[in-house]
Amino acid sequence: MDRRVESNADEIFRLGSPRELIEAGVNPTYVITGNMPLVARESLLSRIFSLGEKVVEESLNLFGGVIGAFCIEAVVMDSLEIKVFELSTRIVAGTNLYISGSPYSDLMQKQLSMGRRIALEIREASRTNQLDKILS
């Protein structure tokens, strides 16, 4: 899991009041400049995992299943409602492409990046004659 860092929009509130910002010609922009790993609030975890399970279930219904890493991009509202705005069916920052990118990266094995996890799953599928189940 990660949080997008969006140029000055994430820190603009530290620069001054809205009036001061307008006078200085500073307007919020939302250019994505990076990503930061994060730990989700514990009470949100079951809903977050449920979203992932729903993606897998619907992909099975629609086209035989998603193969590989995916990332659900969402916003958590003040009410703690999760609003999904995009599904990325590829390795992106939220899939923890970096080693120990978040505490969740270490669930299966310590120091396991997304690339290494995929390699391990391919190796295991090959060893058990199940490559047809994971490759398209």
From TrEMBL:
Pfam families: DUF1297 (PF06973). InterPro entries: IMP_biosynth_PurP (IPR023656), IMP_biosynth_PurP_C (IPR009720). Signal peptide: none annotated. Residues 1-135 form the IMP biosynthesis enzyme PurP C-terminal domain. One of its GO terms (molecular function) is magnesium ion binding. One of its GO terms (biological process) is IMP biosynthetic process. This is IMP biosynthesis enzyme PurP C-terminal domain-containing protein. The lineage of its organism: unclassified sequences, metagenomes, ecological metagenomes.
